[in-house]
Amino acid sequence: MSLIEVRKSAETRMGKSIESLKSGLAKIRTGRAHAGLLDHVLVEYYGSPVPVSQVANINLIDARTISVQVWEKSMAGPVEKAIRDSDLGLNPIAMGENIRVPMPALTEERRRDLTKVVRTEGEDAKIAIRNLRRDANDALKKMVKEKEISEDDERRMQDDIQKLTDRHVAEVDKLVSQKEAEIMTV
């Protein structure tokens, strides 16, 4: 493995950590409806759990209401139950093949709880990025030990990887603060 490969691998994997954080933050509701909110809700479909989006159309009626239109009439009950039983705190209303999911207003206490969840997600992402930095530095040390690179090259590359880490950690902080502001906005 070369110096360039070590850096590129670290950068790619840190980017994936950021993408994972973004998808995790997207699942945390802010009081406004969005179709992606139901992405991780699973419903039993012929014996196997599948996402709601694979058995129904999910649309927005307005800023606070999601419409779920099931493709098979027999799936309306299981989809409604899956949404109700999810950890999102939603109370769907069934109307034949259509299910309306109104977004309840968030209380101040619930907003604070959600910001704690956001901070935890952010901290997990930072830990993942720091672990990737450690892995890259370990690979560099191994290359020095095997006399593939000089100690000067190792030091330069460690500085480069540290800058890369700092940049990704700063991006995590930015994403977390944006999401907190979004949640706390009434």
Automatic annotation (TrEMBL):
One Pfam family linked to the record: RRF
Domain of life: Bacteria
GO biological process: cytoplasmic translational termination
Molecular function (Gene Ontology), one example: ribosomal large subunit binding
Record's subcellular location: Cytoplasm
Alphabetized UniProt keyword annotations: Coiled coil, Cytoplasm, Protein biosynthesis
GO cellular component: cytosol
Domain Ribosome recycling factor, residue spans: 21-184
Coiled coil, from the record: 129-167
Database matches in Gene3D superfamilies: 3.30.1360.40, Ribosome-recycling factor
Chief place of localization: cytoplasm
InterPro entries, per database record: Ribosome_recyc_fac, Ribosome_recyc_fac_dom, RRF_sf
CDD domains: RRF (cd00520)
Family: Belongs to the RRF family.
Function noted in UniProt: Responsible for the release of ribosomes from messenger RNA at the termination of protein biosynthesis. May increase the efficiency of translation by recycling ribosomes from one round of translation to another.
PANTHER family: MITOCHONDRIAL RIBOSOME RECYCLING FACTOR PSEUDO 1 (PTHR20982:SF3), RIBOSOME RECYCLING FACTOR (PTHR20982)
Full protein name: Ribosome-recycling factor
Species name: Allopusillimonas soli
